[in-house]
Predict the structure.
Amino acid sequence: MSKTNVDEKFLDKKITRRQMLKLTGVGVAGLAIGASGLGGVLSAFGEELFVDDDTTATNKVNFYGKHQSGIATAVQTNIYFAALNVLVNSKQELQELFKMWTPLAIRMMNGESISMEKQNDLIPPKDTGEAQGLDARNLSITFGVGLSLFEKQELGLASLKPAELKDLPHFPKDQLDEAYTGGDICIQACADDPQVAFHAVRNLVRAASGKVTIKWSQAGFNSFPVEKGKKQTPRNLFAFKDGTENPSGEKDMNEVVWVQPGESTSWMTSGTYLVVRRIQLHLETWDRTSLKEQEKTFGRHRESGAPLGKRNEFDGMEIERKDENGNYIVPENSHVFLAKQAKARIMRRSYSYSSGIIDSTGAYDAGLVFVSFQKDPEQFIKIQNALGRLDKLNEYITHRGSGVFACFPGVKKGSYIGEALFNTL
Amino acid sequence: MKTKSLFAILIAGGVLMTGCNNSEDAKQVDSTVSTEKTTNNETTNANLQKEIDAYKVFALDQLDQFTIETEKFVQAVKAGDLEKAKEIYPHARMYFERSEPIAESFGDLDPRIDARLADLEAEGQGEESWTGYHKIEYGLWEENTTKGYEAIADQLLADSKELRARVETVDVTPELMMTGAIDLLNEVSTSKITGEEEIYSHTDLYDFKANIEGAEKIFTILEEQISNKDPELVKNLSDKFKTVNDLLAKFETNDGNFVSYSQLTKEDTKQLAIAVNQLGEPLSQMGIILE
């Protein structure tokens, strides 16, 4: 049996390093074992073992739980989003892939290297290493599966496809580029550190060499002003606050985001749907727009984030408000007015991006990695349709990339990412 | 080697192992109680002497062929036979590209034979110090002539012969072989797949194929050893080599020639590049035979 296999078997099993120390009953030997690999000893004990969240780790987001991390998790400063295509040819191989990824994700979310193996200096290190010395930085890793995965006949998943998982319709003014669209699997890595987020995706993809290829990826960033010790809503590159209307609290999240029993296919219970849009913001045209026009475009005040005519960010939008002349205070073609009319809610978790300069125009290739979570992509579709051709913001933005992914429910200790899907037969 | 050191520690610590269900581990216990990790080069090299010898035979044969074909090429250039020189050019180079891990051991000869103008410029040198195959490539395809390249051709042949003579002295080690296999793939990834190796003749796919063959030869030689450690890795590597070779075969014309690099679409090069990268990961694991 290969070293790799031994190690993966070990990672599959249910034990923590701390339990290991207890089991060996020899502190010093135990520590030495921890550093030199555990495969042989663990199988000797016949224990079922697994890699666990290290609750003592600094800046740690838990991997295990009812829901995946990176959805209700407090928004971090950085994202590295990757859409992958799979090369595997059977459901079993796909299942093995998610099993293999599970301990790696936990380790990285613990701020650890993906491998505890002793290094043979004639082969490359298992972990690419650039996150060494950094703590977990609140890394969250969210996995989802796209429509195209269910359409691969060789995987035999067609009957498991949730009815809600469909291609988004074409929206007015969409200019989707195939190079930023779709994917069989998505990995959303978010962290309070760009290098930690990138490291997570890089190592998951590398460990899956021969099984996946990256179709497209996008890095993004957010910055949070802090007032009275409290993180404020971040601003997008148009300087407007993004994410003000997000659901909060369990009840709200259950209504908007988490699939409840019976609401989708059974394996999606406690899961959610991720919509990603790579939206170019035309910074040059925006920057020559007057403040008044900018605010009328969004329907909010730029500085405070308050609805037009109000003082505070979290004041009610009340879109029916009219001035003394009977005109809507929040213009009917403003972004929030139209979005509100859709009467649908979503959980926005967007980041800004800046990826160099567009060859053909010399303009910034910058904008928004729009990410939203909802229990049904229809919620997003409703809002996007309501924005339609009318949205005043259309003039300043172009949707270039798109994806919809079904994000598994959370992972129970001892289980693996996506088990619910593979157990449904 | 982790199992060895692990068991050594356990025994030293007085932990009694009763339920050991890994026979491979059990076998190793007594012989390695006091040793840590063995990377004694002499021992491992001796164990792999058969493989080292096989690779030497291969490399010497390739460079024999290289000298012979280079001589034909040089004759064609000096005879002013443009078409014949163009015909021999990509094929002669393949022998060099297959054995590059060895050929490039000589820091002076490799650039004299194989430097691109861009390589020299990167080192602050100019066209005047440019020699070898790519210089003649420029004459054949850009200037459409052999005139004025006779002296360069003579020099190329002399350098090729010197290379062949000096190769006898190369100390082939398993490490050189394994690093060499990866280097061959890296060559493909960084210059062949981008069309930067043969910017005038666009015969990059010949070099591509030869680099892959060179790496595959090393794998084949080490296959049995790898199989003893990890049969899965052998299967994986065989699959990945096949994928690359199948893709390349799509661009092979029936007489053993390849289409011009300029005919490849962006999608073609992307597919090839991905296949090479997917081969590179398992290939980098061949070092397990030395732990």
